[in-house]
Amino acid sequence: MPVINNLDKRFRDRIHFSTSSPLTFNDLDSILEKMAHTIPFENVCIIEKRTKEMTKENLIDKMLVRKEGGLCYELNSLLYLFLKKNQFEASLIQGIVYDAATGEFGNMGRTHVAILVQHENQLYIVDGGFGGNIPLKPVPLSGETVSSSNGEFRIRECHTAHGHYQLELKLKHKDTDWRIGYAFDTGETISDVSRLESVRVTVEEHSDSPFNKHPLLTKRINDGSVTLTDKSFTRWEAGKVTKEKIDGERYNELLDIWFPSSN
């Protein structure tokens, strides 16, 4: 059977979502949680210069056949394809990430990709690709705050040059105040993942891209997360953080332990 026709089963198998029954909106919390534990946010293929064009086939091959992870435009595109396969009213949107260090929105443009889902006349952002900042639940555009094991999240309507909405977050054990994640619009939506090819190229080639210089891998673990770079390994668990400075040999050891499919 062609890989693309097997998307639904392969995705469920990859995230260990055992039920084969039709997906409902109430399943999304579990889907997002399981996805965050099993498909890492990572840029290894960029660092190793073995990326491929944005197509359904390439996304499925990379993350469901070879069982690697990906960045926002890959993770959320794959999740979008899975949701569409399960009859969700969904589309892809592009946003611009806020840089807390500079206090400004990034100059790479709208390179963050998320999913817009409509359910019972309500719009939600579903985002499985925002690194350590993932909401792990659908976030309504109504402004209501949602809470998950990763913190609190909300969407505020604010008409600026960067978009009409902002996703804001307050991460558990990390943030004391609300901060901006990214701004976005709902006016222009995307239904064909190949239209995100320009996003992929920008993230891979832009001089200001944080993803084309050093490896970065992160995923959720029970009550926390792990993050690996070529210089450090950081583990958050139950509100406590441990950080280890590492060399190349230790990086490869930790890659095998925590991110075996990305090696």
Structural class: alpha+beta
End-to-end distance: 27 Å
Largest sheet: 9 strands, antiparallel
Shape: globular
Helix and strand element order: HHEHHHEEEEEEEEEHEEEEH
Q: Per CATH, what is the topology of the largest domain? A: Arylamine N-acetyltransferase fold
CATH architecture label name of the largest domain? 2-Layer Sandwich
Strand percentage = 25-35%
The first-level CATH class of the largest domain is given as Alpha Beta
**Total strand count, please?**
14
Taking all Cα atoms into account, the compactness measure Rg is 17 Å
Q: How many alpha or pi helices? A: 7
The number of domains: 2
Helix content: 25-40%
Poorly predicted residue ranges = none
Write the layout of secondary structure elements.
Blueprint: H1 7-15, H2 28-38, E1 41-42, H3 44-47, H4 56-65, H5 72-85, E2 89-99, E3 104-105, E4 112-119, E5 122-126, E6 139-140, E7 146-148, E8 151-160, E9 163-171, E10 179-184, H6 197-205, E11 216-221, E12 224-229, E13 232-237, E14 240-245, H7 248-258
Antiparallel strand pairs: 1-11, 2-3, 2-4, 2-10, 4-5, 5-6, 7-8, 8-9, 9-10, 11-12, 12-13, 13-14
Summary of the model, kept short:
The protein is of the alpha+beta class and 263 residues long. The protein is 26% helix and 31% strand.
